[in-house]
Amino acid sequence: DGGITQSPKYLFRKEGQNVTLSCEQNLNHDAMYWYRQDPGQGLRLIYYSQIVNDFQKGDIAEGYSVSREKKESFPLTVTSAQKNPTAFYLCASRDREVNSPLHFGNGTRLTVT
Amino acid sequence: GIQVEQSPPDLILQEGANSTLRCNFSDSVNNLQWFHQNPWGQLINLFYIPSGTKQNGRLSATTVATERYSLLYISSSQTTDSGVYFCAVADPNFGNEKLTFGTGTRLTIIP
Prior knowledge:
The complex is a heterodimer.
Chain A: E1 4-7, E2 10-13, E3 19-25, E4 31-37, E5 43-51, E6 54-57, E7 64-66, E8 76-78, E9 87-94, E10 103-104, E11 108-112
Parallel strand pairs in A: 2-11
Antiparallel strand pairs in A: 1-3, 3-8, 4-5, 4-9, 5-6, 7-8, 9-10, 9-11
Chain B: E1 4-7, E2 10-14, E3 19-25, E4 32-37, E5 43-48, E6 52-56, E7 59-64, E8 69-74, E9 83-90, E10 93-96, E11 99-101, E12 105-110
Parallel strand pairs in B: 2-12
Antiparallel strand pairs in B: 1-3, 3-8, 4-5, 4-9, 6-7, 7-8, 9-11, 9-12
């Protein structure tokens, strides 16, 4: 079955450590996205990538980094510079056609103490 | 950037009731989508609807692009409809790629 896999589901880290969240898709989608969701809030865009080896900052990119070396993979690194990293992180992908829907992974819940 | 507002923020209904959720946006768009987030956090795409009306079972959606709003209708609500409903629009200043989400409507269906 095609889909988006995010791992791990839950992640715990100590403050000051970098952590990388995995996102893999087998939908052959060109565009991939990372969103952050805080409790009771909507989704805020961190980074997005329209094609391999290219990505753009979203609305809250500070303290995060990404790479897009393969079409299937779009890992997100939460660096120690991110002041409030505890959140629910959602990866998504879509085809680049105008009317294509956005598909989401099941998310990674990151807790930093 | 584009602003997206959803109303009401919370809605509690008895099973079997109908509901209307609203999404207002601040600029013309060519991409608007509705999503349902279940209590476990999973987001499911309901509709791609930049204009016009679509129906899928008990759910339907209408977007009036010229007046910059979209409505999601849920008829004969079931407890499995509970969750948060989001609309998302593509910011026209960033092509079709940058999707901005509203803050959502939390729907609770009581048996």
